[in-house]
Amino acid sequence: MTESVTKVSHFPVVIVGAGMVGAALACALQDENIDCLVLEAAQLNTNASWPADDVDPRVSALSLASQNLLNHIGAWSRIESMGRLQPYQNMYVWDGCGTGHIEFKASEQHLPNLGHILENKTITAALHQELKQRGIEVWSEVVLQDMSPKTDQTRQLYLADGRVISADLVVGADGANSKVRQLSGLPTREWDYPHHALVTRVALAQGHANTAWQRFTENGILAFLPLQSPANSSAASHCSIVWSLPALPAQAMQALSEADFCAALSKAFEGRLGQVLATDKRHVIPLRQRHAKQYIQPGLVLVGDAAHTIHPLAGQGVNLGFLDVAALVQTLASAKASNYDLGDMTLLTQHQQRRRTDNLRMMALMESFARLFGNQHPLLSLLRNQAMHTMQSLAPIKQHLAQEALGVGKHLPPLAQDVSRI
Ligand SMILES: Cc1cc2nc3c(=O)[nH]c(=O)nc-3n(C[C@H](O)[C@H](O)[C@H](O)COP(=O)(O)OP(=O)(O)OC[C@H]3O[C@@H](n4cnc5c(N)ncnc54)[C@H](O)[C@@H]3O)c2cc1C
Questions:
Q1: 235 contacts 277 by C-beta, under 8 angstroms
Q2: Dihedral, CA atoms, 199, 203, 205, 211, nearest 10 degrees?
Q3: How many angstroms separate the CA atoms of 80 and 369, rounded?
Q4: Contacts of 415 (CB under 8 A, 6+ apart)
Q5: What is the 3-state secondary structure (H, E, C) of 34-91?
Q6: Quick check: 215 and 94 in contact, CB under 8 A?
Q7: Which pairing describes strands 237-245 and 276-279: parallel, antiparallel, or unpaired?
Q8: CB contact burial 295-317 (16+ within 10 A = b; e otherwise)
C-alpha cells in the first residue's frame, strides 16, 4: 500500500488575514527580521489609484498612534500619494435631544489635526503594495480550514486547497468571525448592539469645515466624517456617514428613494451642513460587540477584530487593532533577542495583559456612551446634557477624553510613537 505523504512547509510565524491589521503586522515583523507567511482569503489589492467615484463605503478615522505605525512601516507615504486623505482639525459632538455639546480642537492639543478620515480600501491598498514591495510571502485566495492543537514544537494549519503548513506562532488577524479563534476554542463575550450602522458617502451643499460631526439623536447616533471631494464635483463637500439606528429604521432608511433619504438625513442632522444633495449606495451593517476572553494559547495570538469588535461611535476599532500590532511586535522582537520561542506563553501572557487592559478600557468607555445615549428616559437625558456641559467646561476631563481618542494619552509601544521623537 502506498501512503501519500503531504509535504509540510514550516514558518516561524503564520498570519491569517491580510486586512489592515494582519498586513501591518507582517510589515512590522519584517523590520524586526522575523519571517512570516500571510494567508488571505481574498485577492490582494495593490492598485496605486482607482477612479475617484469608486468609493469604499467603509472608512476609518485613524488616530495619531495609527498614523505613526503606518509611517514606521512605510505605508503612510503611499497613502499620502493616493490623494484620498482627509485630515480633520475639529470634532463636534452634540445631543440632539438637549443643549449639551462637546468640542475638540487640534489647536487645543497643539497638533496640526486630530486624525485623518480614510476609506478602508486606501489603507489596505497601501499595505498590500508594501507587502509586495518587501517581498513578504503572501498566499492569497486561500482559506484556513482547520488547525491541529499545539504540540511541543509546532501547530499545523490545513488550507482549503489541500496544502498543510506549520508555524511556531499562528496570529489570528482574520476579523470579527475569526476562524483561528473558532478553531482554537477561545471563548468570547459577545452581544448584539440594538443598532445597525447605515453607511454611505453623501454630497453636501456646504463645506464640512474639516470637522468630524456627531449628533446623538432620539433613536441613534449620526456621524458625518469629512472626506476629500472628487475634483470634478459640483458639491461643496463630501462626508462619509455612519448612522447607528435600530434594525427596522435602518432598513427603512436604506429602502427610501434617494430624494427622500437626502431629506430625512438633512433633517436628522438639523441641516448643520446645509442640504444633503446626493448619496452613494447605502449599506446596512449589524453591530455586535465581541471580546475574546483570552487572546492567547501556546503558539497562538489573536489581534484586531479577531480579538475585539466595538461600537463604531468613536471610530476606535482599527486603532485598537494597530495598537495590538505595535505591542505584539515589541513582545516578539524581545523574544527573538532573548532566544525565546516566539509562541512562549510567558511572553504572550505579558502581551495579553497589556492589550486586554487597554482594549477593555476603551470598550467600557464606548459601551457607557452607547448606553447613556441610547436611553430616552428624561432623567438620563438631563444627566447626559449635564455631563456634556461639564466635560466641555472642565479642561482636564476634556483633555483626558481627547488623548484617549487621539491615542497619545497612554504609554505607547515604540511603533505607535512619533518617529521624530524616538
Ligand atoms: C460601520 C463601521 C464603522 C467603523 N469605523 C471605524 C473608524 O472610524 N475607525 C476605526 O478605527 N475603526 C472603525 N471600524 C472598525 C474597523 O473597520 C475594524 O476594526 C477593522 O476593519 C478590523 O481590521 P482587521 O484587519 O482586524 O479585520 P478585517 O478587516 O476583517 O480583515 C480580516 C481579513 O482576514 C481575511 N480572512 C478571514 N477569514 C480568513 C480565513 N479563514 N483564511 C484566510 N483569510 C481570512 C479576510 O478576507 C480579511 O481580509 C468601523 C467598523 C464599522 C462596522
A1: yes
A2: 60
A3: 33
A4: 28, 68, 69, 72, 325, 326, 329, 330
A5: CCEEEEECCCCCCCCCCCCCCCCCCEEEECHHHHHHHHHCCHHHHHHHCCCCEEECEE
A6: yes
A7: unpaired
A8: bbbebbbbbbbbbbbbbbbbbbb
Quote the ligand 1 centre to 305 CA distance (angstroms): 6
d(CA 203, CA 84): 16
CA–centroid distance, 172 to ligand 1, in Å, is 12
State the closest ligand 1 atom to the C-alpha of 22, by its place in the atom list counted from 1: 25
19 lines ligand 1 (CB under 6 A): yes
Q: What is the pTM of this model?
A: 0.92
pLDDT digits (tens, 9 = 90+) for 162-176: 999 999 999 999 999
Q: Which amino acid is at 1?
A: M
- Tell me, what's the pLDDT at 2? 39
Q: Is the CB of 65 under 6 A from ligand 1?
A: no
3-state secondary structure of 381: helix
Distance in angstroms (rounded) separating the CA atoms of residues 162 and 8: 11
3-state secondary structure of 339: coil
Distance of alpha carbon 263 from alpha carbon 294, whole angstroms = 46
Q: Which of 31, 2, 30 is nearest to 15 (CA)?
A: 30
pLDDT tens digits, 243-290: 999 999 999 999 999 999 999 999 999 999 999 999 999 999 999 889
Q: Can you tell me which residue has the cell 455586535?
A: 288
Those residues with Cβ within 8 angstroms of residue 10's Cβ, 6 or more apart along the chain or in another chain: 154, 165, 166, 167
- CA 324 / ligand 1 centre spacing (Å): 14
* Domains contained in the chain, CATH given: 8-86+116-191+289-376 (3.50.50.60)
Do residues 418 and 68 make contact, with C-beta atoms less than 8 angstroms apart?
yes
